[in-house]
Amino acid sequence: MASQFYSLDSILSQHAQYNLIIGERSNGKTFAALEHGIRDWWENGKQMAYIRRWKEDYRGKRGENLFASLTSTGKIAEITGGEYTQTRYYSGKWYLAKRDDQLDSLISQNDPFCYGFAISDQEHDKSSSFPGICNIVFDEFLTRQYYLQNEFVLFINVLSTIIRHRNDVTIFMLGNTVNKYCPYFKEMGLKHITEMKQGDIDVYTYGTSPLKVAVEYCKPSEKGKASDVYFTFNNPALQMITGGAWEIDMYPHLPRKYKRADVVYNFYINFDDVLLDCEVIALPDCSFIYVHEKTTPIKDDSLSLVFSDTYDPRPNYIRNIRKPPNKIAKRIADYFRNEKVYYQDNEVGEVVRNYLQFCTTL
């Protein structure tokens, strides 16, 4: 039976170093991970790291409110036996605290139980040491906006700064189902995430290495959330909020029928190991690009124009469509700029959208 809020029990039973937890928004992923970190601190003296892409994501009011739900539900008081009831945030660190009504002030522990880290700011933490951190929570690792250039490597550098020469650290990577195309999936060799069904846990191993990565696609809550009533419009993007389906935008589909003779040029987009056939179609009164899946290899990949996220020294391969190096590539980029591109379905549109966002990071 599915519970109302997410629990770490199933994924922790896999005893993996990395635990990727993906699911609908507001299902309790972050609550569960932060609760685990506080409990491990209180019972075992193990500190926690909280990682975000940008420093602004956990500074100021966001930092002050990070543990607010554990305060309001009484979870901190429960864990500490009433000794502490809330947290105090100061200079990128969190402390267990309790309000002293007589002094009208917060009394907090001397040592922080949690440190904040920003991937974009990782250069500034390299010389620091954090031997007490044994739980790492990377929140909102999936995004529909922009990933940093070489973000996975930057993330690993943050982990290296924290972990150093130890092997007693557990990493939690939490994400809402906002984007199927994520550089972490490819870099970590997670090949089957888009095929997972809700409730599945897949475990990846790497040859003779003891490294294990567990990936959980959370079950939706059995009765749904009370707030779901506000998001039940007929829009596929909202299914991520109400049920944990992958968020997909609506994209323009083929506007006209065409004949083979109307295709005046073919090029390809190869992004995240998905190959797309792009046809430039010229009709008497208009021209546009139609993008659809290609299920067979490119016949002559030494001559055909290919836009790809991989490095390839051949002159017909281009990484960044936003910086076209020749006239043909510039004409193609103009179609995208002028919104004269149509898609086989919304899934194909998602691939192209992510490729175009990838290009902005180059």
Identify the notable features of this structure and list them briefly:
2 domains, Rossmann fold, alpha/beta, 362 residues, single chain, six-stranded mixed β-sheet, ten-stranded mixed β-sheet, 16 strands, 23% helix, 10 helices
Question: Concise description?
Answer:
The protein has 362 residues and is α/β, with parallel strands linked by helices. The protein has helices at 9-12, 29-44, 60-65, 68-72, 75-79, 151-163, 183-187, 239-243, 327-337, 346-360, and strands spanning 18-23, 47-52, 86-90, 93-100, 105-108, 114-118, 133-139, 170-176, 201-206, 209-217, 263-271, 274-283, 286-293, 306-308, 317-318, 341-343. Strand 7 (133-139), helix 6 and strand 8 (170-176) form a beta-alpha-beta unit.
Report how far apart the termini are.
46 Å
CATH architecture of the largest domain: 3-Layer(aba) Sandwich
Question: Counting H and I runs of at least 4 residues, what is the number of helices?
Answer: 10
Tally of distinct domains: 2
Element order: H for helix, E for strand: HEHEHHHEEEEEHEHEEHEEEEEHEH
Count of extended strands: 16
Shape: elongated
- Helical fraction: 10-25%
Secondary-structure content class = alpha/beta
Mean pLDDT: 92
Strand content: 25-35%
Main β-sheet, in a few words? 10 strands, mixed
Low-confidence stretches: none
Provide the CATH topology of the largest domain: Rossmann fold
